[in-house]
Design a protein that fits this description.
Length: 502
């Protein structure tokens, strides 16, 4: 009886002691105790495993869930550029960045930025981040994952009590999706110095210009101030971005993280097909100029050219080139069941990893359209709307990310195996970490544009994709397993640790 009671007292003592000295339990305020309060008072260089788990796993996932609730619409996640929810989320990010030990400010384009100077003079900054705006009815991880993971990685690094050798800058980009102004990468264009003055005159749906919207948010809203947002090339060493894959490949491969070899280039065309409008019953087939039939023939030709329309891959298409062609918009005039349509407009979106591959597909598609229209004796105008060059990741930087991710996988697997608790769900993680050591050279190609595309104008870039469920994104069905978020945060932390060792 007595011995049992004393055992209980001892156990209780350890429990209480643990609670007060090292554990950082989630509270219901915006953030937990600061990293320093949580870390070992002795300032030992190695960070406690439990603390790391708290920062890179528990708090990281909890913060992503919290950020996912900051929305302009109570029933769907919407956070467009400088909306009320967008500004609230900026305040939340500021607090989290400060908590991680960063010096924080909002720049003249609404980007939230946090910086730590390096202890070694003359070194250039490692910039990390992603965007915090969303599409309408978005998922919680698109953009937010890359921002929160970067903040947590810095917090973990700072918990060791040793300041980094090189400056570190975390950026939460204010606009990537471009929903409000039908633009792309407003935030990262500013930072990489490729923001053009005409963008300030873009109008949102209510008719306000970007310049006016910036001013109403208390920012100067002129080109002179936006020029000051840009970082200088000789002050930046690299830009690193973690982002959800938004595709199904990592899930198929059974790995949580995958380095991105390149971001696909993109060409957008519009075709205006003009035929003869007529009566569906009285005009004979011979001699019709039917714009819908012409469009249909083009659409099938475009799909075939890029290897689609067939579930067996045709031999001349290399899957690694990620050549994809899409007709996403078809507009028919007048669009009535008893009328031969006089005018049909289609949009064509062609993307590929390498510019040669994309441009050759664009040439073939344009030649085919011209040929088909000549045969049908119809007028077709092809308008080239947009061309963006592909961006290759820096191989060296990518290699460093792969090495960091591999180390992280091994650490997380070992920790999982050594912990006797939760033996039931060992399978997934252990499997994944073994496979993560497999392919050394990255093969993923991003079909979507990212802030890294703009940042490539400033510095070397590299990206890591994080596995998501079913490839869903830009949808409430978007989901990333907490374990994969942990893997991402740990890999970025490991990358920072390695970068500051050299
Ligand atoms: C704190 O640091 C001391 C000295 O390095 C070490 O012995 C101790 O295990 C550390 N405690 C924790 C909880 O990490
Ligand atoms: C589908 O692909 C197979 C194999 O490459 C090919 O033989 C067949 O002709 C293709 N069918 C179409 C409709 O493109
Ligand atoms: C097709 O585009 C032309 C030029 O922009 C426009 O005048 C026409 O109304 C469009 N047709 C349809 C059906 O949207
Ligand atoms: C790769 O990165 C390392 C570490 O930053 C650097 O020492 C090395 O010179 C780089 N190599 C190339 C080819 O850029
Ligand atoms: Zn995104």
């Amino acid at each position: 009886m007595t011995s049992r009671a004393s055992l209980l007292v001892v156990a209780l003592f350890f429990y209480v002691f643990e609670e007060h000295s090292v554990s950082c339990q989630p509270g219901d305020s915006l953030y937990y105790k600061t990293a320093r309060q949580c870390s070992n008072e002795t300032g030992a260089e190695s960070v406690d495993d439990d603390l790391l788990d708290e920062i890179l796993n528990v708090e990281c996932n909890w913060r992503l869930q919290s950020l996912g609730k900051v929305s302009d619409d109570p029933n769907a996640l919407v956070r467009t550029f400088l909306s009320p929810a967008h500004r609230r989320s900026a305040a939340v990010l500021r607090a989290w960045m400060e908590d991680a030990g960063l010096r924080v400010w909002m720049d003249q384009l609404g980007n939230v930025r946090g910086r730590i100077e390096g202890s070694m003079p003359g070194t250039r900054a490692i910039v990390m981040g992603s965007h915090f705006d969303t599409v309408v009815d978005a998922g919680k991880w698109d953009g937010a994952l890359g921002v929160v993971v970067a903040i947590q990685a810095v917090k973990a690094l700072m918990s060791s009590g040793v300041p980094p050798l090189k400056p570190i800058e975390v950026v939460a980009f204010s606009d990537e999706e471009g929903v409000r102004f039908q633009s792309t990468f407003l935030g990262s264009r500013g930072i990489s110095g490729i923001f053009t003055e005409d963008l300030l005159e873009n109008r949102d749906q209510k008719g306000f210009t970007l310049s006016e919207v910036l001013k109403s948010a208390g920012l100067p809203g002129d080109m002179e101030s936006i020029r000051r947002v840009a970082m200088k090339k000789d002050e930046v060493e690299a830009y690193v971005e973690f982002h959800i894959e938004q595709g199904p490949q990592l899930e198929r491969l059974g790995v949580p993280l995958g380095p991105v070899a390149a971001i696909a280039g993109q060409t957008r065309l519009q075709v205006i097909i003009s035929g003869d409008q007529g009566h569906a019953g009285t005009v004979p087939m011979l001699g019709r100029r039917d714009s819908v039939a012409a469009a249909a023939e083009m659409i099938v030709m475009i799909e075939r050219r890029c290897g689609g329309g067939n579930h067996t891959l045709s031999q001349h298409i290399d899957p690694e080139e990620m050549l994809v062609c899409t007709v996403g918009e078809v507009r028919v005039w007048p669009g009535a069941s008893n009328v031969i349509s006089g005018n049909t407009n289609i949009t064509i979106d062609i993307r590929a990893r390498r510019s040669e591959v994309r441009l050759s597909a664009v040439d073939d598609v344009m030649a085919s359209i011209t040929e088909q229209c000549a045969r049908r004796m119809m007028r077709c105008d092809i308008i080239r709307k947009h061309d963006a060059e592909a961006v290759e990741s820096d191989p060296n930087l990518t290699q460093q990310l792969v090495a960091a991710a591999t180390t992280s996988m091994n650490i997380l697997r070992q920790r999982k195996e050594s912990s006797k608790h939760g033996a039931g769900d060992e399978g997934g993680g252990a499997e994944a970490s073994e496979e993560a050591e497999g392919p050394e050279s990255p093969v993923l190609v991003s079909g979507a544009g990212h802030d890294a595309m703009a940042m490539a104008h400033l510095t070397n870039v590299a990206m890591v994709f994080v596995r998501c469920h079913g490839g869903f994104s830009h949808s409430p069905l978007e989901h990333v397993e907490p374990e994969d978020v942990h893997a991402a945060a740990h890999a970025l932390y490991q990358f920072l640790k390695n970068a500051n060792r050299a």
